[in-house]
Amino acid sequence: MKIRSVKFNFIMNFILTASSILFPLITAPYILRVLQAEGNGRVDFASSVMTCFMMFASLGIPTYGIRTCAKVRDDKEELSNTVQELMIINTVTMALTYTAFLVLVFLVPQFAEEKTLLFINSISMVLNVIGVTWFYNAIEQYAYITACSIAFKLASIILMFLLVRSPEDYVKYGAITVFAASGSYILNFWNLRKHIRFKKTRPYRFRVHLRPILVFFSMSAAINVYTNLDTAMLGIMKDKAEVGYYSAGIKIKNLLVSLTTSLGAVLLPRLSYYIEKGEQKAFQETVSKAFNFVLILGSAVTVYFIVMAQEALLLLGGDGYSASVTPMQILMPTVLLIGLSNITGMQILTPYGQENKVLVSIVGGAVLDFILNLALIPNYGASGAAFATLLAELLVLVVQCYYLRQLLKEIVRYIPFWKYIVAVGAGTVLMLAVKHWIQIPQLFSGTGTLQAFFELAVTAVVFFGGEGIALILVKEPFVREMLEKVLGRVFGKRTGGK
To answer: Which of 415, 441, 463 delimits the end of a domain?
Structure first.
């Protein structure tokens, strides 16, 4: 099989991430207005509940499968056997989980109330077994992953505008989201025969996978506590409208996290491969660039959307989501924190086989998040859940940095933090000048939504443009290297490569 460069994989994954941001920007304003806070909250409640069941169904296979298959991808026979073993394990755990799901749907009143949505979402749990997205990530087939994802997203958008017309259509919307997320799984299974053999060539070795799978499962379980349980707890302790307000901020945060971690998403298989082959220098160079990327982009989007939270929510959801502004602003720093912990945990500790340390950090964050949710949600609702998530993500990063303190000392020495601060500061000053002094709403006529669009468009150009120019002026190494490569390619082509 052909393995592309990290640069190509990053471009493909960036396109995938960009599509994951662009499509919700197209659909979210429509869905938030049509379904309103309650309908949107019901869909998100069912989705968050099913995410917890899917976590048990897949155990830790999604992450473990990437690392393990990446290590043996040069040996087709061993790769085939590994994939078969993991799929069999996944089938068993899915069957057990689905049985528990059926029982709880009729025993828990809140679940029974949304049983139609839950059953629709459960289709994803079944199809996930044959989807084997972890395999395609392990062999770095990002062009295929991107093409499939965009195709099904386009189809889902068409279905959404055709079928979702009123608040009562929330069930249809739930079905469309399942189609968008899981439709490609059947295609994945069909194409799997091109990469592996399904013939058994040696006795299955399930036991060798069980311990690391359980460790990764524990990590996934803990992560889900403070990424999905807060939504479920809001739905149980408050009401569906409060879930809708919180979910609006979460949607924007998740999109930004996907963008910030877009480089890290392609690094796990490559870094696992480097470690397996003993290529330590290549490993450290790749990790350093990942830190630079996250610090530059993560700090920028965090500051920008804290300042422009009201306009972003007005554009996406209209006036009905003004209560989401404070929760969103509280959540925004987690974009940077998650971007950094994604590197320290998933791109450094995990490839080195130290997932136990990642688990400790995540469990600590999950416990803190659960306790704070219990204490804060009754009085502060969505804002309390947001604050609990922020502190949980901070604790996760601090614990991981403690474990990696020796390695990080070497890396931190070469990170020009002051240049990032100067660049973000310059962009912020320019943005605030445009936002408050020039008073953009007076320059454009139209509705509040149209004004919000123009404010976001103009301030984004000013902020990110100002930050980029500042980074160039202070000669930030990562940006300078990327700029030289781009200019080299452009002028090299114009001169015929001379």
So the answer is: 415
Closest Cα to residue 89, out of 221, 208, 224?
208
The reply to whether 430 and 359 lie within a common domain is no
Nearest to 357 by CA among 403, 407, 289: 403
- Residue 28's identity, in one-letter code, is A
How far is Cα of residue 131 from the mean position of the Cα atoms in its chain?
Answer: 18
Looking at the structure, do residues 433 and 366 belong to the same domain, yes or no? no
Taking the CB of residue 16, how many other CB atoms lie within 10 A of it?
22
Is 383 in the same domain as 477?
Answer: no
Q: What single-letter DSSP state applies at residue 496?
A: T
Residues in the chain: 498
Least confident of 164-178, 326-340, 345-359, 432-446: 432-446
- Are 385 and 497 found together in one domain? no
Q: How many helices (H) and strands (E) does the chain have?
A: 22, 0
DSSP state at residue 324: G
Euclidean distance between CA atoms 322 and 310, whole angstroms = 7
Signed CA dihedral, 423, 429, 430, 431: sign only = positive
Any domain includes 308: yes
| pLDDT tens profile 398-448 | 999 999 988 888 777 778 888 999 999 999 999 998 877 655 444 444 456
Residue 158, helix vs strand vs coil:
helix
Sequence-distant (≥ 6) Cβ neighbours of residue 497 within 8 angstroms: none
Q: Which domain holds residue 443?
A: 416-498
Q: Considering the domain boundaries, does residue 354 fall inside one?
A: yes
Measured N-to-C along each axis, helices 355-403 and 240-260 cross at an angle, to the nearest 10 degrees, of 80
The residue behind tokens 């749990």 is 125
Alpha-carbon span 253 to 231, nearest angstrom:
14
Indicate the number of domains in the chain. Answer: 2
Assess if residue 1 is contained within a domain.
no
* pTM, 2 dp: 0.72
pLDDT, residue 443, reads 43
Q: Do 385 and 431 reside in the same domain of the chain?
A: no
Higher pLDDT, 301 or 216: 301
Same domain? For 162 and 279 the reply is: yes
Cα 182 to Cα 178, 188, 396, 413, distances in angstroms? 6, 10, 30, 44
- Beta-carbon contacts of 282 under 8 Å, excluding residues fewer than 6 positions away, are 274
Statement to judge: residues 143 and 66 lie in one domain:
yes
Asked if 298 and 260 touch (Cβ cutoff 8 Å), the reply is yes
What are the φ and ψ backbone dihedral angles of 5, each rounded to 5 degrees? -75, 160
Alpha-carbon span 464 to 251, nearest angstrom: 21
